[in-house]
Amino acid sequence: MRSETQTIQPLGGQGGAGPVLVGRGLTKTYGTQRALDGANIQINAGDAVAIVGPSGSGKSTLLHVLAGILPADSGEVFLGGRRIDQLGEAPRSELRRKEFGFVFQSGMLVAELTAQENAALPLLLGGASRSEAMATAREWLGKLGLAGAEERLPGQLSGGEAQRVAIARALGHRPSVIFADEPTGALDTRTGAETMQALLAAASATNAAVVVVTHDRDLAASMPRMVSMRDGKVQL
Ligand SMILES: Nc1ncnc2c1ncn2[C@@H]1O[C@H](COP(=O)(O)OP(=O)(O)OP(=O)(O)O)[C@@H](O)[C@H]1O
Ligand SMILES: [Mg+2]
Fold it and tell me: 234 CA to middle of ligand 1, Å?
């Protein structure tokens, strides 16, 4: 059933270990290029899952479909037992804002905003007051080892620091699921491993599930769960 107006109820704070996000039989074709070919995946509350697989196997597409950024051609996506893939654009974007957090390869921080303002953005977009959003952002930056860097602009941060700001930004609104596409792809091995540890620790502190696409097999193997994609399918 299509629902354009229904208000999204936050799932946060429910805890438990049941499925939080489920994708079933997902297909997606770009022109003639099949990116997803019946992909199935289940993410449980508090899960930390690495998605690995060859370039072009559909990892980013799967992430975008699960997060409601990209519509699938067929298949179903459930969040907390509720079907979300058929929602209209307005509730889908509300869902993304409230329930999901995103960390991309190179931060995607707003260059003109300070670290603290960047981290506060999703809260501000969600309707929090500036003082409340800035206080939460400061708290998360502190937890991520960035106390003192609040006023710096993205251009004044190292790659690893910028990714930790992106993590703070992804977590402040307490999402149920954090999606990360190659979050350590632009970092050296050691900084990458530290950044991933910071992400996992912060997610675990809020009981958020984490879904991370990575090319780094060692990093993936260090995560509690790893799934492989090939030819648009999640391997069993
Ligand atoms: N916007 C697009 N238009 C056309 N084809 C696309 C588009 N996005 C992805 N594809 C194709 O769909 C397939 C899956 O792409 P996807 O980006 O999901 O792979 P990936 O596993 O994330 O790869 P990588 O590891 O290189 O990031 C590839 O064949 C890709 O060329
Ligand atoms: Mg990709």
Answer: 15
Give the CA distances from residue 49 to residues 1, 58, 177, 193, 227, in Å, rounded to whole numbers and listed in that order: 30, 16, 11, 15, 7
Q: Is the CB of 230 under 6 A from ligand 1?
A: no
Q: Is 58 in the pocket of ligand 1 (CB under 6 A)?
A: yes
Tell me which of 32, 61, 73 to substitute to probe ligand 1's pocket, judged by most ligand atoms within 8 Å of the beta carbon.
61
Q: Which residue reads 């106390």 in tokens?
A: 147
Q: What is the DSSP string of 107-139?
A: ----TTS-HHHHHHHHHHHTT--HHHHHHHHHH
| Cβ of 192 less than 6 Å from ligand 1 | no
Q: How far is the CA of 52 from the centre of ligand 2 (A)?
A: 10
Helix residue spans in the chain (DSSP H): 59-66, 89-99, 115-125, 130-143, 159-171, 189-205, 217-221
Residue 10 banded pLDDT, cuts 50, 70, 90:
very low
**CB 180 within 8 Å of CB 212:** yes
**Closest to 8 in 3D by CA, of 67, 65, 87:** 87
* Domains of the chain from N-terminus onward: 19-234 (3.40.50.300)
Q: Which of 226, 227, 231, 211 lies closest to 45 in space, CA to CA?
A: 211
Percent of the chain with pLDDT over 90: 71
Atom 16 in ligand 1: which residue has the minimum CA distance?
A: 58
